[in-house]
Specification:
Bound molecules: MU-OXO-diiron, calcium ion
Number of strands: 35
Strand order of the largest sheet: 10-9-16-15-12-11
Number of helices: 9
Distance between the termini: 14 Å
Largest sheet: 6 strands, mixed
Shape: globular
Helix content: 10-25%
Structural class: mainly beta
Radius of gyration: 22 Å
Length: 561
């Protein structure tokens, strides 16, 4: 069946939704982080199927297991420490996942990218911080080296056979990117004297480029080599890291806190300076008709900001302008040294504006937000959804999801409207939203990230929610708009990196930091995934089953202009 744009709009029943604000999408990688052309839509029959779907969610649970709603199953694809080839092992605390098929016609064979965000030294290097008064003075070079190896990312070739995804051991594409992998800066000027820097770390969430490379974002980088902070006289001072790596490796903090792009085929990586430096949670890219790129990225720290880069040249993540959101006035404000006198008076050039993005954003009037985390583009409307996970000092314990409607639906617009789409709390049933994924039918999947130290604790606001979970908000039917819990994480864990396979039949998901509150390896707080080592291990799972297929069936209609 073929709809033209007018027929499509009336079919969707979106009164008042003019053609001008309809974006063009094609969900070519099973995930809306890859939109580029056409609409993601389905037949009337399919719509009726979706409307009839009844979902039975899970009750909150504090059980040490990965629990799934009826109609879903999982198997583990890869765990921390698994060998990926003769030299390398899978890193720790897996977060963002992204799957790219090697051949677009075969959705069952491809490359899985996985972020390794940070390490728990007790598990990874055996370093016990709590037995020393000045712990970092006791950490050894060998321990730091182990920790540096276990962050960054992994590329593994995976194949699905008989419903089970397996890693192809020793595949030539399998490789590790670590805190010691050299990578180039995509910029014309050196940063702290370097055009090539050592390693990536704090890789939280990410994205995919329209040209099918991986994007991995450096979030809490100050934990590794510290941070340079400036006093009222603009004098720099080093704030030490909690991991203490700078005691052995004198790498400038300014080399971290960037958006990093990794080529799946050869593992080469580059850091995109033009997108600014801060605690990047993720980066969600959209390719405009003229091949220029728009990239949304948020700074996950209390009262920090939401950013958008618009390239001035096709396919460039260097030439263009970085903007920051004023969500009150609905304006994208340019972080442009040349044309902003207030930036010219404080910073010596655009490179310094980008290195000290947070300070520059505040000077031009950016809105303080409650920790922007993941960002996804709605495949049906083109609206941008941003999780604001919480802001405890401001009394926001449960967070919310922000919806942004760009003016006239144009991703390169400089004005927008912002609304709260859904607030966390007992009434809605979720707290601390973190990662988002739209499936092929436009249902919205959400993971939560309540901190391990406050979950399941009496007298804390998180008690009713029990363990972190995966939720779905159905788009159609009697449950439309409700938040339904479909997976419950093992103890202390967070579910991260939801990513659908291109045929929509598998949801890849990371189980990050199970047993994080463990103080004694002989008595861990979790033993998931219950393997022979009997200790908790961060792992990537594949979730399959009838429910996922019913909700997320690939049944697209070709749409003409
Ligand atoms: Fe690593 Fe903002 O979560
Ligand atoms: Ca996150
Ligand atoms: Ca988080």
């Amino acid at each position: 069946m073929k709809y033209n744009r007018r027929e499509f709009i009336s079919f969707m029943g979106k009164a008042g939704l003019g053609a001008a604000i309809m974006p063009q999408f094609l969900i070519s990688c099973g995930n809306t982080t890859t939109p580029n052309k056409g609409f993601n839509t389905f037949s009337e029959e399919r719509l009726n199927q979706l409307k009839k779907l009844v979902l039975k969610g899970l009750a909150p649970s504090d059980k040490d297991d990965l629990l799934l709603a009826n109609g879903l199953n999982y198997h583990t694809v890869i765990k921390w420490g698994d060998k990926i080839n003769n030299e390398d092992t899978f890193g720790f605390n897996n977060d963002f996942t992204c799957f790219i098929p090697l051949d677009e016609n075969n959705p069952k064979d491809g490359l899985l990218w996985v972020n390794h965000e940070y390490v728990n030294p007790l598990f990874v290097s055996g370093f016990k911080a709590d037995v020393y008064e000045n712990p970092l003075e006791h950490k050894t070079l060998e321990q730091v080296n182990k920790e540096m190896y276990n962050v960054g990312g992994s590329i593994v070739r995976i194949k699905e056979e008989n419903g089970v995804w397996k890693v192809v051991k020793n595949d030539p594409y399998n490789r590790r990117i670590t805190a010691k992998t050299p990578m180039k800066l995509n910029w014309d000027n050196p940063i702290k004297g370097a055009m090539t820097v050592i390693g990536t770390n704090s890789n939280c969430s990410g994205g995919i480029t329209p040209w099918k490379t991986f994007i991995t974002c450096e979030e809490n980088y100050d934990g590794c080599f510290g941070e340079t902070e400036y006093d009222e006289n603009n004098e720099p001072k080093h704030r030490p890291s909690w991991l203490g790596w700078e005691r052995f490796y004198n790498y400038p903090p300014e080399h971290y806190g960037w958006v990093v792009e990794v080529n799946p085929k050869d593992g080469t990586a580059q850091k995109h300076i033009a997108l600014g430096r801060f605690a990047h949670e993720c980066c969600t890219l959209y390719e405009l008709k003229d091949k220029r790129v728009v990239a949304y990225t948020g700074d996950d720290k209390n009262s920090e900001h939401l950013y958008k880069f618009i390239s001035s040249k096709p396919g460039s993540l260097k030439e263009g302008t970085l903007y920051v959101a004023d969500t009150i006035k609905g304006k994208w404000l340019a972080l442009d040294w040349e044309n902003q006198p207030v930036l010219k008076s404080k910073f010596k050039d655009q490179t310094e504006v980008l290195i000290r993005t947070r300070e520059a954003a505040k000077l031009i009037g950016a809105t303080a937000l409650n920790r922007p985390e993941d960002i996804e583009i709605d495949p049906i409307t083109g609206n941008i959804f941003v999780t604001l996970t919480n802001n405890k000092p401001k009394g926001d314990f449960h967070g919310s999801i922000l919806k942004i409607e760009e003016e006239n639906g144009a991703f390169d617009a400089l004005e927008f409207k912002a609304f709260t789409y859904k607030a966390g709390g007992e009434e809605s049933g979720f707290s601390c939203p973190d990662n988002l994924a739209f499936d092929l039918s436009g249902n919205l999947w959400i993971t939560s990230d309540m901190s391990g130290s406050s979950m399941n604790k009496e007298n804390k606001p998180y008690m009713p929610f029990k363990n972190n979970s995966l939720f779905v908000i159905p788009r159609y039917g009697k449950d439309a708009g409700k938040v339904i819990r479909v997976a419950s994480a093992p103890k202390d864990a967070e579910l991260t990196g939801p990513w659908f396979s291109p045929d929509g039949k598998t949801l890849f998901l990371s189980v990050q930091h199970p047993g994080e509150q463990t103080k004694d390896l002989n008595n861990p707080t979790s033993r998931w995934p219950f393997d022979e080592d009997n200790i908790p291990k961060p792992s990537v799972v594949a979730i399959t089953g009838g429910l996922i297929e019913k909700m997320n069936k690939l049944n697209k209609i070709e749409v003409s202009d």
